[in-house]
Amino acid sequence: MPKLAKDRKGAYIIYPRKGEIWALFRGWDVGWSSQPEKHQHFNYEVVEVLSDYVDDVGIRVGYLNKLDGYVSLFQGGTDLSGSSFFIKQNEIYRLSHRIPSFRLSGTEREGVPAGAFELDLASLPENPDDLWYPLKGMVSRSSKLRTPSKVGTCSSSIDPKEVNVVEDFEMAKARKSPRPINVTKKK
């Protein structure tokens, strides 16, 4: 059950709860809500809520970083990603939306760290460039998995000799969910 509060005008404010994953508007400005004609294309940051909301303090959150080679796996707690920070009461509209997630145990697939989160793809932006995280572009690739340099439609100018089927197959495997799919047959 989410934490709710009713303001003076009768509107409800939903506060994030500890352990939830939320998207924040990157570069948020309080003037956005009062000037809809200036709305722009939004970029997002992904955070884990580290504390429940407290009046006069806010909500403590920490950045999550996307795991290299995966589409929807994120992990927090690295020293390089920066420390946690507070979203104060006057910044509460910086919160965009809750992202449904599943905390992984690390046994789902080889190379998946325990404590990582699998985020709901429908809650993430379609364009990966619209998502920002502290280690974006700085993560070293320790496996053979790679991220495509360009996303889009196939071009007729691609030389078939340059296509590495094994690497492309490995990349496609990384896009699958690390959790096993439980299939039950109807009787």
How do the helices and strands follow one another from N- to C-terminus? EEEEEEEEEEEH
Average pLDDT works out at 73
Main beta-sheet strand count, sense and barrel state: 9 strands, mixed
The amount of helix comes to under 10%
Strand tally: 11
Q: Counting H and I runs of at least 4 residues, what is the number of helices? A: 1
Compute the separation of the termini in Å.
Answer: 35 Å
The computed structural class is mainly beta
As a whole number of angstroms, the C-alpha radius of gyration is 20 Å
Regions with little confidence, pLDDT below 50 for 5+ residues: 140-176
Name the shape in a single word: globular
Strand content: 15-25%
Count of individual domains: 1
Protein name: DUF3444 domain-containing protein
Organism: Cuscuta europaea (European dodder)
InterPro entries: DUF3444
Domain DUF3444: 5-108
Structure description:
This is DUF3444 domain-containing protein. The protein is mostly beta strands. It has one domain. The protein is built from 1 helix and 11 strands. It has one helix at residues 165-174; strands at 3-6, 12-15, 21-25, 44-49, 59-66, 73-76, 85-87, 95-98, 101-103, 117-119, 131-132. The strands form 2 sheets. Strands 3, 4, 5, 6, 7, 8, 9, 10 and 11 form a 9-stranded mixed sheet that branches. The chain has a two-stranded antiparallel sheet with strand order 1-2. A hairpin with a 6-residue loop joins strand 5 (59-66) and strand 6. The chain is globular. The relative contact order is 0.17.
